[in-house]
Amino acid sequence: MKIAVCGKGGVGKTTISGLLCRSLGSKGISVLAIDGDPNPNLALTLGIDPKATMPKALTSKLLEVYEKDDGKKYAKLNAPLSEVMDNYGVKTNDNVTLLAVGQPEHAGTGCMCGIHTTVREIIHTALEESEQVTLLDLEASLEQMKRGTSKYVDVLLCVVEPYYRSMEAVARFQRLGKELEIKNIVAVANKVKNAEDEEAIRQFCLQTNLPVIAVIPYDATIAEADKTGSLDINAIDGSPALLAINQLANDLLETVKA
User: Fold this and answer.
1) Strand pairing category for 184-192 and 90-91
2) Is the pLDDT of residue 248 over 70?
3) Which of 39, 66, 190, 206 has its CA 20 to 30 A from that of 77?
4) Would residue 61 count as lying in a domain?
5) In 3D, which of 61, 58, 114, 64 has the Cα closest to residue 87?
6) Residue 10 falls inside a structural domain
7) Residue 125: which of 83, 177, 188 has the closest Cα?
8) Is the residue at 150 inside a domain?
9) pLDDT confidence band for 158 (50 / 70 / 90)
10) How confident is the model at residue 228 (pLDDT cuts 50, 70, 90)?
11) In the chain, which ranges are E strands?
């Protein structure tokens, strides 16, 4: 199963991505987590100590560019996925290996097109070579959708909060996801405080024909635990949001099987 998580900035994508990876890992499933945001935070949600060595940034040097008979240029990884994970990944205690695009070293150094292609081909290779779950936490902009970074995923999780700008952003991600021919595009309603919040999201998603796969309540426990930096899973044990994300993990496994 290959998953991409998208949504407007601040909707809780990274928190959901990290906890979803840890939930799947707790079931004994090997998970490859990719932080696709140049301003990375997924490591903290995965419980990695802020003082620990972070993953070595992925590079376009991992790509081999070649030309087919049609004259077009294509790219593929020049090393086995297992080797990329060994050389660039950081392992957690939850059966999760983290890869990251890394932060730009300097301002004014140009676009990250090569890195987007590298991430896309890592997912493509994982699809062909590996049975493990791969999850990509996308940056908040539409850039990675435009670059086709999510082209090979099975599921696009659109995280949405109950306010208009967030819902409009999800509609844009949904449209681009359809253009990439992603098979399963679903919404995750997040930070839902009451029935009115949930209904607002469901009504919007109904209009755009976007199934709501999970409703995650606003949870002050997680917000409080986030303040410590690295998210301690024991500090939120039994919290309503974590229970909802655990159920989401189960539902995603069933969705892809179907």
Assistant:
1) unpaired
2) yes
3) 39
4) yes
5) 58
6) yes
7) 83
8) yes
9) very high
10) confident
11) 2-6, 31-35, 63-67, 73-77, 90-91, 96-100, 133-137, 155-160, 184-192, 212-217
| Phi-psi map region of 23: left, alpha, beta (phi>0 left; psi -120 to 50 alpha) | alpha
* Cβ–Cβ < 8 Å for 192, 218: yes
Give me the amino acid identity at 157.
Answer: L
Band (pLDDT 50/70/90 cuts) for residue 168 is: very high
pTM over 0.70: yes
20 within domain boundaries: yes
Nearest of 4, 31, 42, 2 to residue 157 by alpha carbon: 4
Label residue 127 exposed, middle or buried (CB < 10 Å: 0-12, 13-18, 19+). Answer: middle
Tokens of 115: 């890195």
41-90: per-residue pLDDT in tens? 899 999 988 888 778 888 878 888 877 777 677 778 888 888 888 998 89
Residue 103 domain boundaries:
6-257
Q: What are phi and psi of 223, to 5 degrees?
A: -60, -40
Parallel, antiparallel or unpaired: strands 96-100 and 31-35 = parallel
Task: Report the number of distinct structural domains present in the chain.
Answer: 1
Distance, CA of 78 to CA of 190 (rounded, Å): 39
Rg (CA), the chain: 18
- CA nearest neighbour of 136 among 256, 12, 18: 18
